[in-house]
Specification:
Strand order of the largest sheet: 2-3-4-5-6-7-8-9
Largest sheet: 8 strands, antiparallel, barrel
Oligomer: single chain
Distance between the termini: 32 Å
Order of helices and strands: HEEEEEEEEE
Number of helices: 1
Structural class: mainly beta
Length: about 180
């Protein structure tokens, strides 16, 4: 009940606007396809990934926040899923008044992977992504994303380096303006 009340209060106190300016909240996610090559072996994997998250613009055109990454892979006889979470930072290069903008972001995620019938294994992932944001209206943007990620298993040799493409949606929420009009 308390969560519902907090969400209701946030919805009432926020207005929707296309702002990549200080004081704006960012919420959304990406659905992506990835092709992975393992550096310590000769293997390739194709993966679908869902990554929701949220952030805050601490200064104009710069947002930071947290995200969660959900992945499930099935190939041949193997099946596994993982969940990672961690911080991200995003910078938009063009002025806030543009209907299309270009962003660059970095993330550091950590979590675990679980194979069927085996214990979970810890892992970390460092990634960068870039692409255009196309504002459909003043508060929603559709994004295309090109990404690179480097993942390492706890105690493992080698790194998994991944190139990916994806599509995402972002919602921009601006809370009530303060007395100075920011």
């Amino acid at each position: 009940m308390k969560r519902c009340l907090v969400i209701l209060l946030l919805m009432v106190s926020c207005t929707l606007s296309a702002q990549i300016q200080e004081g704006t909240f960012l919420a959304g996610g990406t659905l992506s396809f990835q092709s992975t090559n393992y550096s310590a072996g000769n293997s390739k994997t194709s993966t679908w990934n869902l990554t929701p998250g949220g952030g805050y613009f601490f200064i104009d055109r710069f947002a930071a926040g947290a995200r969660v990454s959900f992945t499930h892979i099935s190939n041949d006889a193997d099946s596994y899923s993982d969940i990672l979470a961690g911080p991200f930072a995003r910078f938009y290069f063009l002025p806030a008044t543009r209907n299309t903008n270009i962003f660059l972001e970095a993330e550091y995620l950590f979590g675990s992977e679980k194979y069927d019938d085996f214990d979970a294994v810890g892992k970390t992932q460092l990634g960068i992504a870039a692409g255009p944001s196309f504002f459909i209206n003043p508060f929603i943007a559709v994004e295309t994303v090109v990404s690179w990620q480097s993942m390492k298993y706890k105690g493992g040799d080698g790194r998994y380096n991944t190139l990916g493409i994806g599509i995402g949606f972002q919602f921009y929420l601006r809370c009530k303006e303060d007395k100075e009009g920011k």
